[in-house]
Design brief:
Blueprint (H helix, E strand, L loop, with lengths): L3 E4 L2 E4 L4 E7 L9 E6 L6 E6 L6 E3 L7 E6 L4 E6 L8 E7 L12 E6 L1
Parallel strand pairs: 2-10
Antiparallel strand pairs: 1-3, 3-8, 4-5, 4-9, 5-6, 7-8, 9-10
Length: 117
């Protein structure tokens, strides 16, 4: 059973940076493309970024292009999301999952990111 644990969230001022981590217990995650998603209060969960298994391709939502960078360390079973130039509209709970598609049984607790103006 794969478990994904997100960490690294927090409270930051607009323009600041955070680095999120997604640690996996292993399993299929190791050879899967992995994505970051986020859900703001009152909104549906949305795609943020994903990365293929060998880091050969990355994809970003238009809203984060140029500000966020996704990377992974397969030896550590960990995927990262470096978030720079944060904006209040980036405030959300951030989750990781395989992608595509995300698996319903892989959703974790997420990590809260709050950006103050």
């Amino acid at each position: 059973q794969v478990q994904l644990v997100e960490s690294g969230g927090g409270l930051v001022q607009a323009g600041g940076s955070l680095r999120l981590s997604c640690a996996s217990s292993g399993g299929i995650f190791i050879i899967s493309s992995v994505g970051w998603f986020r859900q703001a209060p009152g909104k549906e969960r949305e795609f943020v970024a994903d990365i293929t298994w060998r880091s050969r391709s990355t994809y970003y939502a238009d809203s984060v292009k140029g500000r966020f960078t996704i990377s992974r360390d397969n030896a550590k079973n960990t995927v990262y999301l470096q978030m720079n130039s944060l904006k209040p509209e980036d405030t959300a709970v951030y989750y990781c999952n395989t992608n595509p598609p995300p698996r319903s049984d892989y959703w974790g607790q997420g990590t809260q990111v709050t950006v103050s103006s």
